[in-house]
Design brief:
Blueprint (H helix, E strand, L loop, with lengths): L1 H22 L6 H55 L49
């Protein structure tokens, strides 16, 4: 019986607490509404500016893509031209006698180097000097 009464009392206290918390409503003042409206306007302006920047960036991206495609086509054409052309061989004839004979004066042929001596017996190492007194 006491536990039943305790449960009912606890439920009543809990219910009144929740009701009191739920009933407290607050209304926004005109200044608060104006501040919120200003924030919304600022965010809208920021969004519009971001969308304009995005459009400009998209145009730049398209221009860059076109330039890249054009450069790639030119490179492919150059590769095709380079690989399909034949090498040109140029023959040039030179006179049989060098025309500037006095530019490099003739020098006598240097003597041949002397031959190395034949390998012979190696000298024995000299004995160690006597210790100092």
């Amino acid at each position: 019986m006491k536990s039943k009464l305790f449960i009912i009392l606890a439920a009543f206290v809990l219910l009144t607490t929740l009701t009191a918390a739920g009933c407290t409503t607050s209304y926004a003042t005109a200044e608060q509404m104006q501040a919120l409206q200003n924030q919304v306007n600022s965010l809208t302006n920021s969004l519009n500016s971001t969308q304009q920047q995005l459009g400009s960036t998209q145009q730049q991206l398209n221009t860059t893509q076109q330039a890249l495609s054009s450069a790639q086509t030119q490179l492919q054409q150059q590769k095709t031209y380079t690989t399909s052309s034949q090498p040109t061989i140029i023959y040039r004839s030179y006179p049989s006698v060098y025309p500037y004979t006095n530019y490099y004066p003739w020098r006598p042929t240097p003597p041949a180097p002397r031959p190395l001596p034949p390998p012979g017996p190696f000298p024995s190492p000299s004995p160690a000097p006597p210790p100092a007194p």
